[in-house]
Amino acid sequence: MTCSASAGDVTLKFGNGTNPSAKEAGELFKKIVEERSAGSIKINYFPDNQLGDDRVMAETTVFGDIDISVISTSNMATVYKDFYLFDAPFLFLNPAQAL
């Protein structure tokens, strides 16, 4: 997290992949955070894997160079093994059961 010159202002680095829905969600997240914080929280948004692929963004987020990242669960599982659960085939019989 990088603090700007003004006390209380925060700038966060947000990396996102190339999935169209994730990009739209990232843009909306940036807009909502900046509006609801009255501009005291700024989001530097980097879509389209500008900060690296999923593996690189996961590692860089763990190291603290990226504050927020959106990556697939399969790539996150290489860092946190519990995420393999979300890629298990036939874990649920139907979408209703998953909820």
Q: Write down the domain tally.
A: 1
CATH superfamily: Bacterial extracellular solute-binding protein, family 7
Level-1 CATH class name: Alpha Beta
String of helices and strands: EEHEHEHH
What fraction of the residues are assigned to beta strands by DSSP? 15-25%
Give helix % range. 25-40%
Compute the CA-based radius of gyration. 16 Å
The count of strands amounts to: 4
Q: What's the overall average pLDDT, rounded? A: 86
- Based on Cα principal axes, name the global outline: globular
Structural class: alpha/beta
Span of the ends, CA to CA: 34 Å
Largest sheet descriptor: 4 strands, mixed
CATH architecture type: 3-Layer(aba) Sandwich
pLDDT < 50 stretches? 1-5
Task: Look up the CATH topology.
Answer: D-Maltodextrin-Binding Protein, domain 2
Number of helical elements: 4
Chart the SSEs and their pairings.
Blueprint: E1 2-3, E2 10-16, H1 20-36, E3 41-46, H2 54-63, E4 68-70, H3 73-76, H4 95-98
Parallel strand pairs: 2-3, 2-4
Antiparallel strand pairs: 1-2
What this model shows, in words?
This protein is α/β, with parallel strands linked by helices and 99 residues long. It has a single domain, classed as 3-Layer(aba) Sandwich (D-Maltodextrin-Binding Protein, domain 2). 35% of the residues lie in helices and 18% in strands. Strands 1, 2, 3 and 4 form a four-stranded mixed beta sheet that branches. 16% of the residues are buried. Residues 1-5 have low confidence and may be disordered.
Summarize the structure.
With 99 residues, the protein is α/β, with parallel strands linked by helices.
